[in-house]
Amino acid sequence: MRHTMPKTALLLAGSALFAATGAQADRADWPQNFTVGTASQGGTYFVYGSGWANFIADELGLSGGGEVTGGPTQNLALVHSGDMAFGLTTMGPAADAMNGESPLAPGLVMDNVCALFPMYETPFSITALSSSGIESISDIPDGARIGFGPAASTSDTYFPAMLETLGVNFERRNGGWSDLGGQLQDGLLDVIAFAAGIPLPAVSQLEVQTDVNIIPFSDEELATVLEAYPVAEFAIPASTYTTLTEDSQVVSMWNFAMAGCDLPEDFVYEVTKATMENNDRMRSIHRSAETTIPENVVHNTVLPFHPGAARWYAENGYEIDDSLIK
């Protein structure tokens, strides 16, 4: 006896087959695995990037992981060349790479790098001993000895330039933060100027041992720096340090995740969707992901957005100017 399938069942089976085939076709050009360029092991970039890679790999059924690199500047070069699918960077090195001014490849415009999503901010802040009488940037005396953190760090790359723009003349010193904090306390430095996560242990330690001034940017200084550098306005909450009685107005540099612009649009759309729609999961990877939310997409004005990422933002009501989409 011949069995026949009801017409509705045939239609449903056909639809399921079509959907499965469509899904298969959509993923046909997806990479089978991917790597995320992070930075040195143990740092925020490594923890954040490796955790995010594992999350995306699980979510999309792929193989992926974070990889130790030299950090933001090298990540731009690795993503541009296609050696890595994804990477983490800050807006300063990104602007340099887009202008052909990367120290790793002078003259090479890295135009195969596209923005994905905002990560978190790295604030720039200035500290001096209260006994110095330095209470504002304009109080910093000519020839002041300023510690800018480790050589070639984001802090050392951008903070000296910002202070020069604001008319400060100084002697530049480098070193680890705890070492520079000790030098400040011993009178070997006049100021420490850092770009790092807050609270900075070196400053917290100084507060315990002596009186310090945590120096804000004036409104005019803030406007000048915002105009000249790829930074955003930031307020260090008064609760960060015992010295502060009110929020301290400074600037910060945003960190963004990026992708190779030639990655498939559907793939990058799904990566962006998973990241932007699961902030609880992102915060469980690293607490700094509290700001890994679509509202902060406005803080990238440097890298073009990948069309796949831009599509997710557009569908969810976050407008990106056409000039900022690859």
Automatic annotation (TrEMBL):
<dbReference type="InterPro" id="IPR011852">
    <property type="entry name" value="TRAP_TAXI"/>
</dbReference>
<dbReference type="Pfam" id="PF16868">
    <property type="entry name" value="NMT1_3"/>
</dbReference>
<feature type="signal peptide">
    <location>
        <begin position="1"/>
        <end position="25"/>
    </location>
</feature>
<keyword id="KW-0732">Signal</keyword>
<protein>
    <submittedName>
        <fullName>TAXI family TRAP transporter solute-binding subunit</fullName>
    </submittedName>
</protein>
